[in-house]
Amino acid sequence: MSDRHIIENIKVRYWFTGLMQRSGCKAASRLEKIVEPLSDPKIDPRTPLRNKWKNYKKGINTPRSSLLKKVEVKFPGSSKEINHPIWEILKLNNPCMDDLDKWFLQLSPKFQAVVYRSSNGDIANSCTRKKVSEKLIEKLCKLASLDSLAALTLYWVEAKNNGQHDKEVLLATGIYQILLMLGKDLMSRKIADPLFLYIRSIIFEKTNWGGGYFAISPFEYLWCSTMLYESVNRNPRFRHTSNWPLKCTGMYRLMNGENGLDFKFCLSPLILPNWDSGPPTNKEWNYWTHRYAEWTWGWIHLSLDYDGMYPDDFLWDLISITLFIHRVDDMAGNQQSINEIEYSKQEFNELLTYTNTIARLSVSMFIKLIS
Q: In terms of C-beta distances under 8 Å and separation of at least 24 residues, what long-range contacts does 341-348 make, across chains too?
């Protein structure tokens, strides 16, 4: 059990929960009877109810190909979920990393058409993979799925290995946005929390954020994903549509500020300073506190449905004063150059703890208001 890769656990739970949703079953034993009925001559009638399907529910065991074929007959397309290349790609230490195109070409034709440029339409034999660009990332995000998550992960590995830090950040941000858009489904499949934690450890925490670290916890991720999905469904254009790419487009626009900076700030990755280069100068202090103030403003704004406009509202003034404006006042008259003044990591972390408490309390208030 200890040697089992966490991704094996996650993919089986994803597959199993999808079967439960499609079948309408409430218990693993009921699903077992549908897939492997007692009338099957291979089933021993003396042990009609086994622990096998309960173990699939927990992700303890991976089903054999023979069982997957049976399930595929009952639930067409289910085998694609458990055999999707994303699960091997996310292991990262797999030999697949030595030949990225081999894995890009396992994505669905729709995504291959996004990733590759072909002159004669034969992508497999005559193609050129497109270079990373903001436009390419946008296209993949607007088609949020396991395929787009796989594609951006492969591109991220390539950028990381080549030391392309700017692209690395763009791709990691795109991966986070896709996780936000897929959050509703991942939560219903009961894997949102462990999948986020795993991707955070292998991608977000390994990304060079330029002196900072990725500070989103599962709590913030799940809340932001829920807020994003609920917000896009308030729009009559997206509320009743079954067109997933259209809904993804709506969510992508929200995340990029087309409907307000509160969404843009709150749904962006929260990056906090790691102080690797030592205590911050005043310039660095103001840069990081300003970014954190924007994120906190967006968080509280959305959770309380606050009526105000950045940066001309009371909430922004309050957060700004709390975080950094009073520090400039404290330095008035100091003969030392402001850019040379350094502050302790402890002081900054105390401010983070204080404002993060305010942000979390605002969510608690929000939950009480809607419950």
A: 341/281, 341/282, 342/278, 342/279, 342/280, 342/281, 342/282, 343/279, 343/280, 343/282, 343/285, 344/279, 345/275, 345/279, 348/273, 348/280, 348/285, 348/288, 348/289
pLDDT by residue (tens digit) across 134-186? 999 999 999 999 999 999 999 999 999 999 999 999 999 999 999 999 999 99
CA distance 62 to 68: 10
Specify the pTM: 0.84
pLDDT over threshold 70, residue 361: no
- Could you give the 3-state DSSP secondary structure of residue 270? coil
Residue 360, C-beta contacts closer than 8 angstroms, at least 6 positions apart: 219
Residue 106, C-beta contacts closer than 8 angstroms, at least 6 positions apart: 85
DSSP string, 146-165: HHHHHHHHHHHHHHHHTT-H
Please state which of the ranges 49-53, 68-72, 76-80 shows the lowest mean pLDDT: 49-53
Supply φ then ψ for residue 129, to 5 degrees: -75, 135
Phi first, then psi: give them for residue 177, nearest 5 degrees: -65, -40
Q: Report helix angle 244-255 to 134-141, nearest 10.
A: 130
Q: How far apart are CA 213 and CA 107, in angstroms?
A: 31
Average pLDDT over residues 78-92: 93
3-class DSSP assignment, residue 211: coil
Evaluate whether 172 touches 160 at the Cβ level (below 8 Å).
no
Question: What is the DSSP-derived secondary structure letter of residue 131?
Answer: P
Residue 368's Cα: distance from chain center in Å? 26
